[in-house]
Amino acid sequence: MSFYVYILASQRNGTLYIGHADSISRRAWEHQGHEGRETFTGKYGVKTLVYYEVFEARETAFRRERAMKKWRRLWKIELIERFNPGWNDLFETLPPE
């Protein structure tokens, strides 16, 4: 089983959301359906999967998520730009789980 840390964005250089999950495709799909709802991602239209990392252990993914949430915004944007310079939605390109 794999575990994931991911970043969603509302648009290029827009609002960012960092999370972790054991099924990135399911979690990204869930976020896409929250627009207009009283959730952070719904309220701010954050639904484009722009970055993710894969881990073998849940605890490692959790620690990475917590560390990334403390990063400066610029560091998060630089990470996205290195991994996904076009800020494309990676949802359709996810590997099978």
Q: How is this fold's topology laid out?
A:
Blueprint: E1 3-9, E2 16-21, H1 24-32, H2 40-44, E3 48-55, H3 58-69, H4 73-83
Antiparallel strand pairs: 1-2, 1-3
Spans of at least 5 consecutive residues with low confidence: none
Strand content: 15-25%
Structural class: alpha+beta
- Count up the helices: 4
Largest sheet: 3 strands, antiparallel
> Which percent bin holds the helix content?
25-40%
Q: Round the Cα radius of gyration to an integer and report it.
A: 13 Å
Strand order of the largest sheet: 2-1-3
CATH topology: GIY-YIG endonuclease
CATH architecture: 3-Layer(aba) Sandwich
Order of helices and strands: EEHHEHH
Can you tell me the CATH superfamily? GIY-YIG endonuclease
End-to-end span in angstroms? 8 Å
Count of distinct structural domains: 1
**Total count of strands:** 3
Question: What does this 3D model show about the protein?
Answer:
The chain is α+β, with helices and mostly antiparallel strands. It has a single domain (3-93), classed as GIY-YIG endonuclease, CATH 3.40.1440. The protein contains four helices and three strands. A hairpin with a 6-residue loop joins strand 1 and strand 2.
